[in-house]
Write a structure and sequence with these properties.
The structure is a homodimer. By secondary structure, chain A is an alpha+beta fold. The first copy, chain A, has a single domain, classed as NADH Oxidase, CATH 3.40.109.10. Chain A contains eight helices and five strands, in the order αβαβααβαβαβαα. In chain A, strands 1, 2, 3, 4 and 5 form a five-stranded antiparallel beta sheet that branches. The first copy, chain A, is globular, with a radius of gyration of 17 Å. At the A-B interface, α1, α2, β2, α5 and β5 of A face α1, α2, β2, α5 and β5 of B.
């Protein structure tokens, strides 16, 4: 772990990072549900909860989740697919563009969906899993493959599973297999 | 607490909600820094960390933070100001619209900023504070008051402090002073 903090912060936050090395071992459906449950409790503008999930889980007891895993994998950019194909769970997080309450554009749908993803990632960490969010996938094709209505905005694919071995990654990815650095706090405060 | 979960999830997630009753007691600068530090470790697309913060803290040792508190308060909608004026800390979270790496639009800047806000809210919860995010503020005026460059997108104002007494809220707000309900998980999974 190359992360240090000058402040005592939640372990799950300090220790969470986004590895590419995934162990293909199945994630029980109950754990998948639990991380989605964590996302469910995120706050949102007018409590709209403008996040939705497509669940792909290769070894699930749920047949739809099994077939979704293959579909989600097919939507990833090649750069992501080469490592993410090992991940036993692949989720898509989607935002709802308009407010249910009045049909107007919801400026905060992406922001709120990001909060839900943050909660999901920390509950996964607490349960001993790693997560890796990816923007590199075909958003338009996602709408087609899953017959999504126009109001749904695919945002990111999330790989979920146990952390694997760096040595099993393609060679060029091994050096990058470290927690990312962060800008100094002073830069983030205007 | 009217929240129940069928899954064992992180206490900070289950117990966090967005009260309006704030205790005006000061939040030490060190706690403000710690919740921002939690936000700092959020994941983001290409690790761009496209979130920035304006800190307003009424009783801070930092004079800029003291004067920011008054400015942020003046930017709130009247509906929010009537309860949020008690909150000792008022933060603005802003997103950076374009990628630093290539200047192109960063589709994920709101999403990633939402993740940072989620981490901030949970670290606050862990430290015994409550938070309440607000979309109801004057975004254009925010740019003027703080002389922000065009690339910075004000997203939300966050009230931070200790939980106050419901009885001290304006009468019409007391009934709503409860954790919000959530849609069933089945609705969130497509």
């Amino acid at each position: 772990m190359n992360r240090v903090s000058s402040y005592d912060i939640m372990n799950e936050i300090l220790e969470r990072w986004s590895p590419r090395a995934f162990d293909p071992k199945a994630v029980p459906d109950n754990d998948v549900m639990a991380v989605l449950e964590a996302a469910r409790f995120a706050p949102s503008c007018f409590n709209e909860q403008p996040w939705r999930f497509i669940v792909g889980s290769r070894d699930s007891g749920n047949e739809k989740w099994v077939s979704n895993h293959e579909k989600v994998l097919s939507l990833l950019n090649e750069t992501n697919r080469r490592w993410a194909e090992k991940a036993p769970v692949l989720l898509i997080i989607l935002g709802i563009k308009a407010f249910e309450k009045n049909g107007k554009d919801n400026f905060w749908h992406l922001f709120d969906s990001g909060t839900a993803w943050g909660f999901l990632s920390l509950e996964a960490q607490r349960r001993g899993y790693v997560t890796h969010g990816m923007g590199g996938f075909n958003k338009q094709q996602t709408g087609e493959v899953f017959s999504l209505s126009e109001e749904l905005q695919p945002i990111a694919v999330i790989a979920l599973g146990r952390h694997g071995q760096t040595e099993e990654l393609p060679e060029d990815l091994r050096e990058r297999e470290l927690p990312g650095s962060r800008k100094p706090l002073e830069v983030l405060i205007l």
